Structure formats: structure tokens, C-alpha cells
Amino acid sequence: MAFPLQTFFRELGYALLEHQGEGNFVLLSDPPGWFSELWGAARCGDAKIPLAEKSPFLENFLAEAQSCWGSPQTGECRSEVWIESTPAGREIPLQATALHAEGKQLLALRSPDREYGEQVQVLQTARNALLEHEKLQREIQKKEILLHCIIHDLSQPLSAMRGSFDCLATETTSEQGQKFIALGKLATQQQESMIRQILQVFAADLQATMEVEKATNHAPDLLACAQEAMTSLSPAFEAKRVNLILDPQIDQQASWHVQGEESRLRRVFTNLLENALRFSLPGGNVTVGLQADGEFRKAYVDDEGPGLPADMRPAQMFGLFSKGKEGGGKAGLGLYFCRTTVERWGGSINCTSLPEIGSRFWFRLPRAAAPVDSAAPGHKHALAVPDGKLAVQGRRAMRILFADDQEDIRTLTKYQLERSGHHVHAVPNGREALSALLHEHFDVVLLDEEMPVMGGVQAAHAIREGEARLGSRAFLIALTGNNTEEDVARLRGEGFDAVLGKPFRLEGLTDKLGTAGGTRALTSMPQKPSLAISAGIDDLLARIGGDKKLLHQMIQTFLRDTPKRLTSLQRALQRKDAAEIASLAHALKGSLGIFLAQHAHDRAQELEELARKSELSGAKLAFAALKEEIAKLEANLRGYAMQTQGERRASAANKAKRSPGKRKK
Amino acid sequence: MGKTSLVRRYVESIYSDTYHTTIGVKISKKVVQVKNSEVNLVLWDLYGEDDFQRMHWNHLQGAFGYLLVADGTRPATLDKALALEQKARSEVGALPFVFVVNKCDLVNDWQFDPALELQLIAKHWTILRTSAKTGEGVEEAFSQLTGKMLG
Q1: Roughly what angle, to the nearest 10 degrees, separates helices A262-278 and A334-344?
Q2: Which residues on chain A are in Cβ contact (under 8 Å) with B81?
Q3: What is the largest CA-CA distance in chain B?
Q4: Which residues from A are below 8 Å from B2, CB to CB?
Q5: Distance (Å, rounded) from C-alpha A484 to C-alpha A492?
Q6: Fewest CB atoms within 10 A around its CB: which of A343, A448, A541, B151?
Q7: A54, A111, A130, A132: which to substitute to probe chain B, counting the most B Cβ within 10 Å?
Q8: Which residues on neighbouring strands pair with residue A351, listed in sequence order?
């Protein structure tokens, strides 16, 4: 029986050995060829072979094998694969299994050549794919940066041109001169619009490649978006005397929520309406309609123009740089944006000629459940106030600090703002802006995002940090050539109150200043803190024996320390340091608990729990939610602090009035 | 990241541009002279830990020290290296190690954050930039580790 068993093991590729102690082995069968290749010729029953000495891996494995051999239970202990090299340099993968039988310490060695090869191939393919993916991501990032630089450089001269035209318009009185100025302004507007469109299209494309679409959670209202786009374009339709109609057949009571994201959906409608307007004649109609379409919701824009060009397939209209109807479109980006956006949300888009009437452009999107917060009465289909700005009557002169590295922009903007009655101090970079703020108070600080020495974002951080200590707040406006919705959101997250795209119009700037005036009015008369926080503060005040001074100190400490803690948290998240995240979230949770800020407290707890479980994939979202809640709390605390400060001052003034004798002579 | 390439460059003075993934453990030996005495180095080339593979920490049992390798052009590997160092400390205690940031020949793609480097230096880490391709820093990295291991 011994002979066939030995052959069996050899044929299977095993070298079967018995441990003789101290890392020495005896072969129980003639070994396969690889054994001799590695450790010299050997046969069954040969004298002790010092395998542990020959192979450091086996020497290490013996410690594990000993525990198996020493165990009263039968069982095996298997090593990982390791690679031994022959004197000729050939690499041989090996795997060892230790087992004991009939009191013998057995070791089976085998070379898993084929499986190993397959495993390496699979892993190699996976890792190559990962490397390729990372490489592509880097390329995309580089392109995005390049694109933003180009856009920035293209936008800069436009600011100067537009400003010059505005100034000229105030100096020139001749009718002919005004006509030329109007032409020049129109050209700058067109160029600006093209730059913005390019940015939006490419930014959307890049975004789509970089990340999984997150927008589908928002479930915007198709009808509300259509109405908002119609409202914003109504002046253009009126100017061309084209009637813009919302189809009366639309069921206003139905749910028109779809998958997508609100601002982009509005942009889709805007692009389709602009396209329809371009081909409409005065007196014509453009109709916007909606229809239920099974699991989808369909929207269409009908025009009474010349219909689709005969030489183009409808789908071609939505291609990149496709100019659509003859002599019509601008850069050929608007409809392309519509297609990529709608398709990303799982919808489709197309167009068709309406015989003897014009054309219909339509798209459909998967329907979605209404978001919880849209069910509030009065919300449904209400038209939004454009841009959410505060209307400010009776604007007053402001002290404005303006930082921009371009001298022409500085000169022009200063000139324009001073003509509007404001006091302007212009500086070339963020550092000089900070220095100016040390010596003078400004109502509004305008910061260009990209400047040498110190950029706008860095300066904004420093300003906000200083304010947290002082308890005051300036209105910060970012000026940027990168003016997509994502950029606006990003800059708001960096501490800016408003964002103005470059090149900017004086009216745009004046509007933002109007908002600043509104906000300033609010800061001098702080909003009453929300009921929840007010209750929380009252409770806290009761707990500290009604000591308002101490409460004020606690609030100031919180406002001073929290941004630093959030920065540390962000860094820990970047480092994926779960222990640090948990510890920082825990500390924040404690501070938030003091102010009874339940939502923020819960978010901090959520983050802490995720970190403790090392589930860092969800931690970023939890952190974003925490930041949002903390921002609300900070605003409320700041308001409370200023309100109580105002009350203290008023009380001090009253006391002084009541005690004239104490006045200094 | 180039762990196998670093070992091959050090032991055999050769480099291949083709990337070969490592499964399992490769063991190499090199005899080096340290202050007139011979030191026998046994180098365990452990496969990289990523989404596809997990490390077996028992390989570090009995080790006298280790090179912690990251790819200077891939920030994710730098993060991973920091996590591995923490894990190694908790598994086998504080062993001597040298942090090697490889591929320093790829200057244009270099993404090793100088601020992070300063932080690590402040923690008394020994950090070396290497290139298995050109050989830069490789001898130095192993030599520094040997010195640390010998105390």
C-alpha cells in the first residue's frame, strides 16, 4: 500500500514530511521536482532535512504548526502562499499544511502553481483597473483646473470692458455714442453668457464622470421649475412680443415630482425656452406643457417657428456643438446640456416637428415621491422670489473694502461705486485687505477668489475667524470667474454671504450690496433666536444661576473654538483617522449638549458612532450634516449674543442717564 | 507602490518597468557590512494591503524592523501607510521603521504633501524619498533601517 500512496502524493504535487524536531524533517514520499530544484536532490527516508534553516518562511510557520501538532484534536493549519526562489532564479509559489496523525507531526508542502497563476492574474487585472481609474481621475482633475483657469482668464478682460462701457455711458451724451456703447455692452453680455454655458456644460460632464449622481434624492417639482423658468424669461419674451403660455390642461393638483435636481432642471427648461424664443416670430406662441407618462413625467415646449431642419435627425440637435436650426443657435451647448442632464437622471429627451405649426422639444424623467418638506401648505407651485434676495429700499452709502489683483478692475469698480455714493478702499490682495480691516471698519468686503499673496477664500477664513472672537460680522462677497452653482455653494460654505460671477455688472453688484444693506440691518437688530435655541439658552441660563455674563463668555468660547474643532475634524476625516474623528465628535457633542442643540448633538453622535465602528464611508455625509446644524446654531448664538450685548449697552446708557452726577466733567 | 521593485533594486540592482502584483510573501537575503561586521538581512516582501487583499500580521512577529512604503504619486497610499503604521504598532509594538515614499522620479505627479511630511518629522519619523527606477535613496533607506534595527 505504501508504494501507490507515495506515488499518489507525488503526482498531486505534494512533498509529505515528518517533523523530527528543531526544524528538521524526513521525507515520507519521494518529492515532486520543485523540491529538489529548491533544496537539492532528496528521496523518501533521507536523513534529516533542515528545512527551517533553508526557508525563513517555514521557520516562522513552525511556530503556528507547533500549536497544531501540540493540540489533542485532529485538524490542520495552513500557511499563506509564499514564494521561494531557486538558485537559478525561478520563483516557485508554495503552501504548507501542518497536521498530526497517529502521533506524528506531519507537514505537506505543495506548489499551487496553476491556481496561484490565476489568482495573480485576477488581482493584477483588478489593480491595473484601479491604477487606470486613479490616473483618469487625476487627468480629469487637471482638466477641470485648466478649464477653470481658462474661464477665469477669459472673464477678466470682460469686467474691464463692461466697466468701461458703464463709465462711458455716464460721460457720453450723444445718441450715436450711446448706441455704440449699447452695442459694446451687448457683445460683452453675449460673451459672458457663452463662457458661463461652457463652464456649466463641462463642469456638469466632469462632475458626472467624477461621482455617482447624488441629485436624485431631491425630487424637484417639474411644474414649479417650469413656472420659475418662465417667470425669469418673461422679460425676454415680452421684449420680442412672443406669448409665453403655460398649457391650461395641466393638472395643477397632480404630483409632478421627478428625479433630478431643482436648479439644473430649471436650467433645462430655460435652455428649451431660449431655444424656442430664438425661432419664434413676434406675435407667435410658445407653450409649456406637462403630461403623466406611466412611471415618467413628461414636459414639452412647443414653438411656432420654422420646424426642425430637414437635413438633421432630431437626436442630432442635442449633440455637443450642434447649432440646431439653420442660422439659429449660439455655441451649440444649451441643448447638449439638456440631454446630458436629463439622461443622467434616467430620463430621455427629443424633439419633433409639429406639421404646419412649428416644433416640440420634450423630455421625460422618472417620477419621484414628493420630498417631506414640500408638503407644507402654500409651498406647492408657489413662485420663488428671484434669487432669494432681500428687497432693500432706500439704499445708504456704505464703506466697502474691495480686493482684486487686477488694477483696471480695481480702478473701474472703485470709480463706479464711488459715483453711487459709497466709500471704497481698494487693495490688490487678501493680505492687504486683512491689514485694512485692522485699521478701519467696513460694511462690505468684496474679495476676488484668485489673487496672489493671499486669495479670497483664505482671507475670508481669516476674517470670519477674527469675527468669531469679536462678535461682529461683515458682509463678504466673493468675486469669481468660476460661477457655477457648485462654485456658489462651495464659496458660501467658505464663509461668503454672496457670490458674484466675473465679469459682473454694476447692477449685479448693487443688488448684492442691497442684500448686504438688508443683512446689516439684521445684524444691528439681531434676529430673535429660534424658539428651540432660545429655550435651550434660557435653560442653560437657569442652570448657571442666571449669570448672563458667564453665558456670554460661554457663547463666545463656543463660537471661537467650534470652527477650530470642525477644521480638526475635517483633517481627521481626510486622514481617515477613525479614533481621532470619534474623539473630536465626542467633544463637540458635549459642547452642543450644553446648548441643548438637539439636532446638532444628534449629528455629532451619529458621526461619533460611525467613527467608532470605523464606517468612514458614511462619515463625510454625517460631517456635512453636522456642519450645517452647527452653522444654524452659531447664527442663533451670534444673534443672541448681539441682542444681549445691545440690551446691556442700552441698560448701561440708561443707568448713566439716571446718574448724571457720575459723568466725567 | 513598488515594494517588490525596491527589494529587487536593493538586492539584485535591477529594475523592471512592468508592474507585477504580489500575492503571498517573497523572501530575499542580503549580507551587508556594518562597522566591520557582517549583517545578514532577511527581507520579507509582504504584499500590499488594499481593497482586494488584507495583510496577515503574523508575518511581522519576529521582525526586527520594517520599511513602510507609500507611492508619492498616489495620496491614497500615503493615507494607507499611516494607517498601517498604527496597526503595526498595535499588533507587534513599536518596531524600528523607515517611511519610504517611492517614485520620486515622477516629479510632475508628486503629491506628497509637505505639511504632512513636516507633521511626520515632528513625530520623529525617518522619511526617505526613493525611486526604485533610478535607485535614488534605496540603499540609504535599507541602510538607515539596518542602523535603527541594530540600535
Answers
A1: 140
A2: none
A3: 44
A4: none
A5: 12
A6: B151
A7: A130
A8: A361
Using a CB–CB cutoff of 8 Å, tell me whether A91 touches chain B.
yes
DSSP symbol at A521: H
Q: pTM for the whole thing?
A: 0.44
Separation CA A621–CA A610 (nearest Å):
11
pLDDT for residue A544: 62
Residue A336 CB burial class (10 angstroms; 0-12, 13-18, ≥19): buried
Of A66, A77, A110, A124, which to mutate for an interface test with B (greatest number of B Cβ within 10 Å)? A124
Query: In terms of Cα–Cα distance, which of A327, A294, A321, A282 is closest to A309?
Result: A327
The answer to whether the CB atoms of B19 and A83 lie below 8 A apart is: no
Q: Centre a 10 Å sphere on the Cβ of residue A132 and count the other Cβ atoms it contains.
A: 10
**Which parts of chain B have pLDDT scores under 70?**
19, 48, 51-53
Q: Which residues contact B83 (CB under 8 A, 6 or more apart)?
A: A576
Question: pLDDT tens for residues B104-133?
Answer: 988 777 888 877 888 888 889 999 999 999
Amino acid, single-letter form, for residue A200? Q
Dist CA A97 CA A87 (whole Å) = 24
CA-nearest residue of chain B to A83? Answer: B26
Quick: pLDDT tens for A542-571.
656 566 766 777 777 788 878 888 888 888
Q: How many CB atoms lie within 10 A of CB A70?
A: 9
What Cα–Cα distance (Å) separates residue A290 from each residue in A232, A249, A632? 19, 8, 38
Note if the bond before A660 is cis, omega within 30 degrees.
Answer: no
Give me the amino acid identity at A624. Answer: A
All cell numbers assigned to B149: 534595527
Closest-CA residue of chain A to B50: A127
Q: What is the CA radius of gyration of chain B?
A: 15
Quote the CA–CA distance of A255 and A252 in Å, as a whole number: 8
- How far, in Å, CA of B68 to CA of B102, rounded? 10
CA nearest neighbour of A55 among B129, B29, B150, B12: B29
Contacts of A81 in chain B (CB under 8 A): 23-25
Across the interface, do B42 and A81 touch by the CB < 8 Å criterion? no
Which chain B residue shows the shortest CA-CA distance from A575? B79
Q: Do B21 and A127 touch (CB under 8 A)?
A: yes
Q: Which residues of chain A have pLDDT under 70?
A: 1-3, 74, 145, 148-149, 152-153, 156, 172, 199-218, 311, 315, 320-333, 370-396, 469-472, 481-483, 502-507, 514-536, 539-540, 542-547, 549-550, 642-665
Give CA–CA dist A152/A149, Å, rounded: 5
> What is the interface size between A and B, counted as CB pairs within 8 Å?
62
Asked if residues A155 and A448 have their Cβ atoms less than 8 Å apart, the reply is no
Residue whose C-alpha is closest to residue A185's, from A463, A506, A399: A506
Of A84, A93, A575, the CB nearest to B79: A575
Contact residues, chain A, for B82 at CB < 8 Å: 575, 577
Q: Which residues from A are below 8 Å from B76, CB to CB? A: 134
Q: DSSP state, A110?
A: E
Give the span between the Cα atoms of A114 and A35, in whole angstroms: 17
HEC profile of A183-239: HHHHHHHHHHHHHHHHHHHHHHHHHHHHCCCCHHHCCCEHHHHHHHHHHHHHHHHHH
Smallest CA–CA separation between B42 and chain A, in Å? 8
Inter-chain residue contact B52 with A60, CB threshold 8 Å: no
ipTM of the complex: 0.83
State residue A298 phi and psi, 5-degree precision.
Answer: -110, 140
Residue position matching grid coordinates 403630461: A291
Which stretches of A428-515 are assigned E, i.e. beta strand?
444-448, 475-480, 498-501
- Cα of B15 to nearest chain A Cα, Å: 15
Helices A334-344/A175-210 angle, 10° precision = 30
What whole-number distance in Å separates Cα of residue B128 and Cα of residue B115? Answer: 15
